[in-house]
Design goal:
264 residues; alpha/beta; Rossmann fold; ProC C-terminal domain-like fold; eight-stranded mixed beta sheet; 11 helices; elongated
């Protein structure tokens, strides 16, 4: 079992580690770094190696995951580039809006590089992860895909679509959580306790998603099954649309997409 170094034990880095563990990876196959290494105690207690030394972590690993914020990517690459071995390491970048070409400036074009855009649902093995690779990284794609399939579903795209993948994959979690929150608040108003309303809304959302994932049909086909003439469902849907539900969601996605270039 190849060893994985996760450089950057923040939200997504720790979520990845938790997801890999839940997917069957041995704790001894993982090493994760963070400046304040004490923040990684919960993982250390599970047997994962933790350190503040990125170069030392690379020395023990075969796959190197970059899981830092965009502004931290350049200094991190400058630090670790001398320790990377193109003949041994596969570099997997989960850095938002940081291109393969930018990574190659520090590592060289011969390094196998895969960009990945998962979301925080990796921790519960329900992520959606988009993947793109450079030339040498193409051979590494199956191995990287296999890892991300431990924590959800994957798809391979051209790198030019990674910004769009960031919005739908990573930001999308927040969009759906906000919708679930709104439905929960409505549930409270019509009589449920807060915890009950949240549980019901979350499970209904999960069920709706599973219907589409299993059938592959258009959402409107499932909607038609629960809307009857002069019924309560269509009354609620029409009221939501009168207030711009679909339009607001689309505009929100576009607003996030237009902001992504400002992240560096």
């Amino acid at each position: 079992m190849k060893k994985i170094a996760i450089l950057g034990g923040g939200n997504i880095g720790t979520a990845l580690a938790e997801g890999f563990l839940a997917g069957g990876r041995s704790p001894s196959s993982l090493i994760i770094t963070r400046r304040r290494v004490e923040k990684l105690t919960p993982l250390a207690e599970k047997g994962v190696s933790t350190t503040s030394d990125n170069v030392a972590a690379i020395g023990e690993a075969d796959l190197v995951f970059l899981t830092v914020r965009p502004g931290q990517a350049r200094p991190l690459l400058e630090e670790i580039a001398p320790a990377l071995d193109a003949g041994r390491h596969i570099l997997v970048s989960v850095v938002t809006n940081f291109s393969i070409a930018e990574i190659e400036r520090y590592t060289g074009a011969q390094m196998a590089i895969v960009r990945a855009m998962p979301n925080t649902a990796v921790a519960v093995r329900e992520s959606m992860t988009g993947l793109a690779a450079n030339g040498p990284g193409e051979k590494a794609l199956p191995e990287v895909e296999e890892l991300f399939r431990l924590v959800g579903r994957t798809y391979v795209i051209e790198e030019k679509l990674m910004a769009a993948a960031t919005i739908l994959n990573a930001c999308g979690i927040a969009y759906f959580l906000r919708v679930i929150r709104a439905i929960s608040q409505g549930g409270i108003q019509i009589g449920f306790h807060a915890s009950e309303a949240q549980m019901i809304a979350a499970q209904v959302a999960k069920g709706a998603a599973q219907l589409l994932l299993h059938s592959g049909i258009h959402p409107e086909e499932e909607i038609d099954k629960v809307t009857t003439p002069r019924g309560v469902t269509i009354a609620g849907l029409n009221e939501m649309e009168h207030h711009g539900l679909s339009s607001a969601l689309i505009k929100g996605i576009l607003a996030s997409f237009h902001e992504i270039e400002k992240l560096k």
